[in-house]
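quick one, 492 residues, struct below
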Amino acid sequence: MPTATPTPPPIVVEPPLLNVEPGKTVAGRINSALGDVTSTVADATVATAVVDQAQRVLYVTGVKVGTTTVTLTDTRGVTRDVPVRVAYAAGTVADETSLRVTGNPTSTDYLREAIVTAVTRAATARIGATVTVAPDGIPLRGDLKIDDRLELDVPVRISGNGYLDVNGSTHVSVENTALPTIQPSRLLVSDYPERLTANGVLFTARLDRTQAQRFLYYHYNPGSEPARRIVLVARNTSNAPATVQMIDGSAGPGPNEMEVGHLSTKRFLVREARNEGQVLTIAAGATTSLVVHPLPPQSVVSGILQLRLVSGDPLELALVAQDAMAMDEAPGDTSQLLSGGAPHARGVYPVPSFVFERTYDVEGDDLDIPIGQLPLPNLRQGEALSGDYGVEQTLNVVIVNMTRGPRAIALYANPRGGRATGTFLVDGTLVQAHALPAFSRFKIWQETINAGTFRRIRIVTMPEGGSSYPLRLTFAPDDGSVPPGGPGSLIY
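---
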């Protein structure tokens, strides 16, 4: 009987698909071919191909953006089609970057966020491409103590918009620098125009070594508007470098204004308590973006920053609304500020913090402390600051029980304007409030004060963007209502 002719082994090319940039060359290994191999390009205007017969390698050079096919043929007549894609790389991953942080210590969560930001900013992405740094891929083992350092390699991916994906890693050096806490002397607020309908400069200020500053911004991009970003730019006009310490409590973008305002406040208060931030150097004559905050349509962003010029000459600050894909983050002409829409606060306010020193006698009247009730005058032309948004409020209360028996005491939150979220550091412990209905009363702390004793308690809070303040905090006898975190409580 006649024997069947064996099927010749196919030509194998590794990798089976070749991606190449215009003007660059890539190689593919040819296997299982017999004799000399010829190459034919379907569209030589997109790419060219050459076979190294001795090394059994296919070299493809990109000519212009597009796709084509290279057909390989050996002496048996066996062929293999190799798809070729010519496109530009999505960007360039930085080989290395450095990061100086503060914190006592700097928490792992903050380190992850700061490293993601630093590596993303160090990468160069083409317009429309996205830099992705997975926080879970950052090999951290714990908090970073003052004066400690760490070195790590962070995986990075740049992709999107039809470009060739770029995968790599950036070597990051992190140092925890010892610096004192920031004590701001005034509050800067940018909440006008709250609803953005144009690009331009939202706020300008000057940062010098005589006055540290707190800066609150809160802006909304309507659904009918293009994607934007909010950029805080620092310009160093001197011939010497400047160093800035910054605590960043930013949140968003997101569609829920109360959620964004709450998250921003929580991040700021927690980080400020730890002195957790970054130390940034601005080169002589340079302009640097301190914050780059994406703002897509139908979203709100909020930021609460604490800024101190550690060294160098004064810096010019500008908060700018830009197209999301703008090539340059520099603000341009800062003499004209955006305006329009309903009036909201924009200006400089003289009191960034309130401190209440109070005593509560368990046999006396309830102790009410209003939060966000005093409007602050504007040192510039513009609206007063109603609701005290961005103003930190510290309550130092001594609870006295001179009776013969223990007394159960509680602290209640009571919104007086409308629905309100809240963040409270109670003796350093984080307590949060979901959106509380107007004029409701929820317990945020409770404790029994023994007979003949007193108890000192410290509460730090701040009115939250997107919520309706004022809010009243009340020390009173425990009414037996659900404790914080209990079933039905909006406190957690």
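The mean pLDDT is 96.
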